[in-house]
Amino acid sequence: MSSTISPVALIETHFGNLRDPRAAHSIEHKLLDILVISICGTISGANDFTAIAEYGKSKEKWLKTFLELENGIPSADTFERIFARLNPSELQKCFIGWMEAVHKTTDGELINIDGKTLRGAKEAGNSRSLIHMVSVWSATQHLVLGQKKVS
Predict the structure, then answer these.
(1) Does one domain contain both 49 and 119?
(2) For position 78, what pLDDT does the model report?
């Protein structure tokens, strides 16, 4: 990577001006913490607010190494309420700006995606169903970013 800026600082730079829709007196969790947990959870396969909250709880110790999390991990309801109230076009503008910066920071590195059928592997209880996997990795960083079993 061409820059040493931390990923959280990069997220804060691009999402820092996102208007927080909550009343100041009722804020228990920083908006940045909610956004970072949501991004990390989604990248890790969480596909709804319950899964994002569960991801946060399972990774809380690690998340606390770079997030404040003064009141722990937000509940699924908190994630849902926040995203329901955020301005979608504002959020989209922040996200696009962040993605453009990530592209610059990584010198435009492409992320590789590959699908495979695992040879000889079968679904439990189904001798005819093969296991199919999709993997995502960074060849430049020699890092597997994730893999998931798919239908």
Answers:
(1) no
(2) 95
User: Per the structure block, which two tokens stand in for 67?
Assistant: 């997030």
DSSP label of 134? E
Torsion of CA 117, 121, 127, 130, to 10 degrees: -10
Q: Are 14 and 116 in contact (CB under 8 A)?
A: no
Q: What span, in angstroms and rounded, lies between the C-alpha atoms of 8 and 26?
A: 24
| CA 122/CA 129 separation, integer angstroms | 6
Residue range of the domain that includes 136: 112-150
Residues 11 and 30 placed together within one structural domain of the fold: yes
Both 85 and 132 in one domain: the answer is: no
pTM (two decimals): 0.69
Residue 1 is predicted with a pLDDT of: 41
Whether 10 has a pLDDT exceeding 90, the answer reads no
